[in-house]
Amino acid sequence: MSAAIDLANDNVRSGAGGPFGAVVVLNGEIIARAGNRVTVDNDPTAHAEVIAIREACKKLGTFQLEDCEIYCSCEPCPMCLGAIYWARPARVFFAADRHDAANAEFDDSFIYEELNLDNENRSIPMKQFMRNEALIVFDHWKDSNLKIPY
Amino acid sequence: MSAAIDLANDNVRSGAGGPFGAVVVLNGEIIARAGNRVTVDNDPTAHAEVIAIREACKKLGTFQLEDCEIYCSCEPCPMCLGAIYWARPARVFFAADRHDAANAEFDDSFIYEELNLDNENRSIPMKQFMRNEALIVFDHWKDSNLKIPY
Fold it and tell me: Do residue A97 and residue B131 have CB atoms under 8 angstroms apart?
């Protein structure tokens, strides 16, 4: 966790991005580390956790981090928590939490609240249409011999 | 939306990844398009929406998609919805929904449920520690002259 917090601190000092860091650990060894790079990379998805997960997967040649632990300097936002669920690590640790992030003017807590609203009540309007056309794709997927489930 | 569904279909046909597609539209024109690439890229974050958002931001040289619309062949999962909130587009449209994805054996609906559980009740255990050490980073952030809010 100290390494994750150090990455967050380095980020603030260098101006490379937001005050967040994350590391992925396998068998007691750090296999990937990242600070937030949203503003420097012009990439709203470049949160520390997302970058660290991507790098760990690249290193291990897999899209699953089953035996890994992820240490985050702050509680993962919904995007990062979603990424964590898709990567399926063994455990996650975090230091600061979503309310601390909100105090530093980050949207983490706000986004958690928005996710539980109906589509029409969200600050970004969301609308469903063409469901029937899209369902055909899932039928093709179910019948596909090429599919790799994840 | 047809373009997003076509991308999903192309993905199933080619075996490049899951049955999902997304496009980003600005002023009535598609500026980024992507299919899911999780398995082919060994990247659990390579959902269609995430890739399309990253490409649109790269093209526009910004980390915000304020005037854009995002069309998704399926309701965004929590990771992608989080990415959408960080990118802040004007509107989002989707075709199939999280329950349709669950019927095709994807975890979208499951992850939405997990997000609302307490840390200790989640299928991936999560634990907080070293909060005080991490709070110091937020203090540095607040005092920083280099920071770019996002």
Answer: yes
